[in-house]
Description:
Blueprint: H1 2-47, H2 54-57, H3 69-86, H4 93-155, E1 159-165, E2 175-181, E3 188-189, H5 195-212, E4 217-221, H6 229-245, E5 249-253, H7 257-261, E6 265-273, E7 276-283, H8 284-293
Parallel strand pairs: 4-5
Antiparallel strand pairs: 1-2, 2-3, 6-7
Amino acid sequence: MRAATQALRTAQREVSEAREANARIETRLESARQRRQDEARRIRETFEVAPENCLSLAGLAANAPMPALAEVDRQLTKLKADRERLGGVNLQADEDLVALTSQLDSMTAERSDVEQAIAKLRGAIGQLNKEGKARLDEAFKTVNGHFERLFTHLFGGGEARLEMIESPEDPLEGGLEIIAKPPGKKPATLSLLSGGEQTLTALSLIFAVFLTNPSPICVLDEVDAPLDDANVDRFCRLMEHMAEDTATRFLVITHHPMTMARMNRLFGVTMAEKGVSQLVSVDLQTAQSFQVAV
C-alpha cells in the first residue's frame, strides 16, 4: 500500500507538471496565434496582399530557401535610409498633378492655335509675296518701257534697259541694275558713264516712274548742274513734254540761265539793301505774251 501510495503521488505530481506545461504551451500558442493575426493584418495594410502572396511579391518561389535574416535586415535598413533621403510624402501630389495636367492641356491647345495661326500667316505672306511679285513685274515692265523711250529721246539715240537682280530668298528684296548705251558707246552700267550721262540716265528713270504713276508736284534740285548746254536743252524739252503729257507741276531749283529761260515763272531772292533780303517773282509766260502783243 505504501508503494502504491507513493506511486500515486508521483503520478499525480507528473500529471500536475504536465498540466502546467500544457497550460504554458497553450499560452504560447495563443500568443503566437495573436502575433500571426497581427502580422497578417499588418501585411494586408502595408502591402495590400494576403499573407500567402508575400513570397510572390518578394520574388521568391514557394519552395525556395528563405534568405538569411541578417541579409534581409541589412537590405531593409538600406531601403529605409533611401526612403528617408527622398524626403516627406507630398500629400498634395494628386492635386498638383491635376493642376499641372490642366495647365499642360491649356498650353498644348494654345500651342496648337499658335501653330495654326503661323501656318495661316505663312500662307498669307506667300500669297502677298506672289501678288506683290506679279505687281512688281507689271510695274517694272511699264517703267522699263518708258525708260527706254525717254533715254532714246534724251540722248538722240542709243538704248537702255532695266534689269532685276532677284534675291533667292525673297524676290521683292532684289536690286535693280541700269544698263545704258549712249550713241557711239558700248553698253555699260550707270557707274561707268560720265557725270552728264549719269544725270540724263537718272532723269530718264525718274521721269519714267512719273509717267507710270504721275505725281502732282516734282521738285528737281540742281539736276542740270553737270550738263552742258546741249544736254540742258534736251532736259528742258523733255520736262516741257512731261508737263504737257501729265498733270505734274515741276519746281526746278537751278542756276543755269538756259533752264531759267525755259521756265514759266521764276522765284528768286535778291538783296536790294545790305542785310535785307527780298523775294522776287517773274512771270515769264505773261511777259512773253506782252512781248508778242507789242
